[in-house]
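Late entry, evening session. Most of the bench is empty. Finally got around to the prediction I had been postponing all week. Sequence below, unchanged from the version circulated by S.P.
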Amino acid sequence: MKKGFIKVCLALAVPLSAAQAQAAGESGLDSLNSSVKTVTGKTAPAASKPGGAKPATSGCSKSAKYNFGGAYFRKLVTHEDPAIVGIQAEGTLPLIAFDEARYYTDTEGNDYKTGPLDRPSVYTGASSPSNELDCGLGWDRVYLSTRTAVMVAPDGGHYQLALDKSVLFGPDGGKLASGSAAVTAMESSLKLKPLMAFRPFWRTTGMEKPDWHNPPLGAKNNIYFYPGERIKMALNYIGGGKFRLYVSAQGRDFSVTFAQKGFERTRSFKRINSIDQFRLENGKRVGNEGHDVVPTKTRVTGASWSTTSILLGSGAAVPFSGTHCVEQRGRDTNARYSEIFRSSGWTPAGGETLDITP
């Protein structure tokens, strides 16, 4: 970890060993408190000044067609080809400094909505003439196998909150409050905020509802990944209208096979680094897709890809660079693209380092 990398409106977990991650994912609060460290009160790494950024062309060709707006995304895609059956990459998850003014607290009992309105994500996906697929890692709340959410106090102490808000446990595991009214009052008094990390997701289209998926709460594969960690990520079309997503870091492995129709004949694949966004409408959190990006001081820095490869049905792996990749920009970020997306270190193996600085 680099020193002085993060200043956030809530605590962020730093990388864990495989044993620590297992403890955080499968045991109670005692293990979590001894395993998960937090970093607060430090400064995010400096980014290059506006006007001095390197254009984020990455050696790929540029598409003349712009994508819809609503997120600060860096999107590189393959050409559409039935011979392409997947994409794989190795890299480092970014460090994050959130805009404290864009923090949302839900007051209607939907605790999963509480948190930053800017949600960093690192993911892959696929497109066909009829369907779109996104899957990878998104910023989400940390839940334990006991079906409780981990909350963080300003001093870094960890608390455990029942999902129905019926019980709040303290850092020592003792019960602090019972009943939703008492729990809510204690939560407010202690100024608790949810612990968050990167969590696997897959979003299908044209299938039965819901189209947004995460590992089930309490399941062993509900694994979390943390800023600064080295990861491997792969998405494969395995035939029969099914895909397989794989993500690993420091001995922790997540995989899921799921159905997604519309990709049998041909397909393209993509690699994306993004700050996905919510906006406020009448004081309520709503999705921002299809709208212009919302100005924010959130910064996502230090992301990198060391290698990215396109997987062919023949078994060959082709570097994701040059004529094999196309840069697709958002219509609402194109004018300031090289200022927002500070790309450097592009390699013929499909590698690059990226800061997103809206």
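Two things to note before I forget:
Confidence is low (pLDDT under 50) at residues 1-53.
The CA atoms of residues 307 and 351 lie 5 Å apart.
Will write this up properly tomorrow.
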